[in-house]
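call fold(seq) -> tokens
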Amino acid sequence: MRRILPQPLLSLALWVSWLVINNSLHPGTIVMGAIVALIIPWITHRFWEIRAGVKSPAALLGYIGIVLVDIIRANFVVARQVLGPNRALRSQLFEMELDLRGSLPVSILAATITLTPGTVSCRISPDQTRLWVHALHADDISEEIAEIKQRYESRLIRVFGQAGDAGRAATNPEAES
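ret:
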């Protein structure tokens, strides 16, 4: 099966994207989308170093839902912060130790932080054990780290089936990028 579908989730995403872009469920569109969804991953599978390794699809769907809700909510919070007095903002750069392991899970965490308005992932350490984050407004760095770990990292640990130390978190407020 892996020879036919080396990246089944990518194939599914390509097929659905093809149908959405073409805005049609005509049989020809469905067949052409299936061909594209089969051929592109088959041609490119040798270039893929990272395998997804999702252990809990249900946890992944929950994670996506949490991230979408957080993005919408954060847009309103950031709008209120930016439109309010700038002197009230407490911009912070901090370092957090990661319990999550692997290039793909760490990259997803960094992308999630960047997608959520008000925070940006600045740097991942070469050994992928630390992440530097810039927050537009953070009163307490340890609270920010705890929230990121609780809302995102712990869920990604479940998605990828990793055993993690849920309480381990190192902070360094004077972190330099």
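The chain has a mean pLDDT of 84.
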